[in-house]
Amino acid sequence: MITNMYPPEERGGYELLCQDHVRWLRAQDHEVAVMTSSEGVPPLPREGRGDCGEHIFRLLPLHWSWTDFAHRRPGPMAAAIEERRLHRAVKQLIRQFRPEVCLVWGMALVSKSPLASVHQAGIPMVAVVGESWALWDIEPDSWLKIWRQPSWRFAAPLASRLVAPISVDDAMAALTPVYASASIRNSIEESLPAWRMRGVVVANGIDLARFDNARRNDTPLRQPIQLLYAGRVERRKGLHTVLDTMSQLRQRGLSTELTVVGWREPEYAHDLVLKAEALGESSHITWRDAVPRDSMPSVYAAHDVLVFPTIWAEPFGLVALEAMAGGCVVCATGTGGSGEYLDDGVNSILSQPEDASALADGIIRLSDEPDLVAHLRAGGYATARRYSFESYAEALADIIRTATSEASSSASLLSEAGERA
Asked: In the beta sheet, which residues pair with residue 179?
């Protein structure tokens, strides 16, 4: 497995879902080696074992600073040194583990050349696509970018032989994409011909037993209403809209308290604190860092409404499903992949992104209509049950089996052809 971040370092549900998949594979007696970055986890060793016995190799430099939210891509010489080390590391891991398949998870902001190294070794790749890195992070890749420049092309054959692969075109065309939602599949296939009409959609899933707290559908909302925001605190997630909504609700006579749980991008979080002070809402907001996932069921149980105000085209949005399983009513925007399971008036209340007034209207409806609360909770429970992690993992397993079987058949045919020749 190759992925940009892996627990204990994580910024959201994608990394946790990746770890859940590793845990599931290990429970099926598969050997798993994870190549990832060391972002956020020093002084852990570069090599070690994870909680479920997986091998972890923290060898990928992450070309991104989470402290100042900025790129830090290396120059040509530094890139060459980095890529040579990575190429050798990938070849060493292949020799050590002789993998039957490579699972490609998050590849944003890390070198893409390991994909070419794996492809050159004849190993099939299955890409679990929960973000659109294939659209926006191939072109800026520091190493690959060098060899698209005419002034460097004279050295391309030597670089590919002595340093690392200089193109991932063949690797990208050969791998099997598995998308978290139809939304992200459509957006990628529109702009990436190599993946057009080749991928499949396997919606993400959650561990229902972990999050179900058996809250009765007719349980009344607390007073003041307890709002929850869970996830990364960055601008495209839309938390600023919720602060405006709280102010409007107070002016309309409805009291709310908001708990924010998750990693915070420093500059945006600072702006939110100032905004809350200006609106007079600071005393009604509790800021918490990300909590261990096993603690999240109790967090959901302590709140009435999950606000999911994302602005961008959310690839999927696991947190809303978890909240539904935990008995929270969901108020969301339904952008991107989240709109494929969020149904206005059935399992959630939807409003347009950055429309604080519409979000306020929805929360007032919940306060005034206990029957609506019970109806949405029932719809949320039913929706969460349709997205189990076990079904998700089994679907991925079928795709992996197909990829490895096809690769084995192709290798046999090539071997037979070579013998005849």
From this structure: 129, 201
Same domain, 278 and 373: yes
Element (H, E) at 177: strand 176-179
Alpha-carbon distance of 412 to 197, in angstroms, equals 27
Tokens, residue 35: 């190549």
Mean pLDDT of the chain: 92
196 and 250 assigned to the same domain: no
**What CA–CA distance (Å, rounded) separates 385 from 127?**
25
Predicted confidence (pLDDT) at residue 413 exceeds the cutoff of 60: no
Question: What whole-number distance in Å separates Cα of residue 98 and Cα of residue 92?
Answer: 10
Residue labelled with tokens 């070309």? 63
pTM of the model: 0.91
Does 189 lie in the same domain as 135?
yes
Question: Can you name the residues that pair with 154 across neighbouring β-strands?
Answer: none
Q: Could you tell me if 193 and 212 lie in one domain?
A: no
Q: Cα separation of 259 and 36, whole Å?
A: 32
Element (H, E) at 206: none
Pairing of strands 125-129, 102-104: parallel
The token pair that represents 196 in the structure block: 């057009």
* Span 26-52, average pLDDT: 85
Residue range of the domain that includes 365: 208-385
